[in-house]
Amino acid sequence: MRLIINSGGARATDDWRSNFQACAPELEVVGWHEDVDPASVDYALVWEPDPGRLATFPNLKLIISAGAGVDHILADPQWPRHVPIARMITARTQTEMAEFVLTSALMLTREIKRAVDNQARRHWEFFDSARIAAELRVGIMGLGHLGAASAQLLARVGFQVSGWSRGNSRLEGLPTYAGQAQFGEFLAATDILVCLLPATDSTRGILNAATLSQLPRGACLINAGRGSHMVEQDVVAALDGGQLSQAVLDVFEEEPLPPESALWSHPGILVTPHCAAIPDRRERARHTAFLIAAYERGEALPNLYDTQRGY
Ligand code: NDP
Ligand code: OXD
């Protein structure tokens, strides 16, 4: 069985090979850049595959996304519609995301970015009136694998957590809101808004001026979903006008974030480089091997991209 991989580029191929050797020695791993007969490729593990390339593998059985999202595959107008796409969601993805959201929420709570910026200027500024987690309401948009894990961890630390989704998900022991009808009520009760939605037509631009204006004045934003969720100029305007006080942004419409982007130097924004939940290659190789073995046995696979839902 042959598995072609583009994730991490050419420099990652040897590392992928040794990780697969350890967990699935029967798989022959081929780098995306290597010469291969397209008809011999059974599986593809990809992140932002070059448009049109997946369609050149006539016997492809399964596409495995190197991340939890699939938008980077659907962006290819020619992705082969008859081939299922499996999303990379592991226990570690959930833990990493939950810990990223917790870290971000605590940094926002204690205004750590302001202290870091002051340190760079050797400026001693005393912050009065620290807030504690129990005084802050965190509202999580998207209650899937990552939103639910984040909600539970933040609640354990003491934050007042609620969640919002289309309405199919509940959070054990925590309040949830559903759909457009309850969006305003959810936002009005949120001091730190966390976006963990998938990228779809209905979530594009959801972090816009109208949404942000319904938060209490001075609220904070954490976006670890996708850059396409944000209307960037609306987020900046909300920060400049005081509607938002701080933001942690991990994902951007254009990645890497271009050096000339104003987001880099905005005092209210902490930029992180799309690193919230990226399990290491060993974990992703193991999960990929599990998916391929399940596929070969004819078993149902978990977390397949659903064309009806769009994620
Ligand atoms: P899931 O598919 O498990 O869950 C998606 C959630 O979003 C569900 O609760 C769903 O609602 C909700 N949702 C979808 N569309 C809407 C909508 N229009 N309105 C309201 N709620 C909606 O996703 P995951 O938790 O696994 O992943 C979420 C996203 O996180 C990924 O798609 C990816 O973009 C991002 N991600 C970012 C990473 C990073 O490093 N920054 C790493 C990994 C993922 P319902 O439950 O009602 O169906
Ligand atoms: C993902 C991501 O979708 O890395 O997993 O954002």
Known CATH architecture of the largest domain: 3-Layer(aba) Sandwich
Largest sheet: 7 strands, parallel
Integer tally of domains:
2
Radius of gyration: 21 Å
Number of helices: 9
Helical amount = 25-40%
> How does the overall form come out from the CA principal axes?
globular
Q: How does the helix and strand content classify structurally? A: alpha/beta
- Report the count of strand segments: 12
Spatially, the strands of the biggest sheet line up as 8-7-6-9-10-11-12
Helix/strand order: EHEEEHEHHEHEEHEHEHEEH
Uncertain segments: none
What's the CATH class of the largest domain, please?
Alpha Beta
Amino-to-carboxy terminus distance:
28 Å
Bound ligands, each once: NADPH dihydro-nicotinamide-adenine-dinucleotide phosphate, oxalic acid
Fill in the CATH topology of the largest domain: Rossmann fold
State the fourth-level CATH superfamily of the largest domain.
Answer: NAD(P)-binding Rossmann-like Domain
Question: Which SSEs are present, and which pair or pack?
Answer:
Elements: E1 2-5, H1 13-23, E2 28-31, E3 43-46, E4 62-65, H2 71-74, E5 85-86, H3 91-109, H4 112-120, E6 137-141, H5 145-157, E7 160-165, E8 176-178, H6 183-188, E9 192-195, H7 209-212, E10 219-223, H8 232-241, E11 244-249, E12 269-271, H9 281-296
Parallel strand pairs: 1-2, 1-3, 3-4, 4-5, 6-7, 6-9, 7-8, 9-10, 10-11, 11-12
Helix pairs in contact: 1-9, 3-5
The structure holds NADPH dihydro-nicotinamide-adenine-dinucleotide phosphate and oxalic acid.
NADPH dihydro-nicotinamide-adenine-dinucleotide phosphate (NDP) is lined by residues 67-69, 89, 93, 142-147, 165-169, 196-200, 202-203, 224-226, 250-251, 274, 276-278, 311.
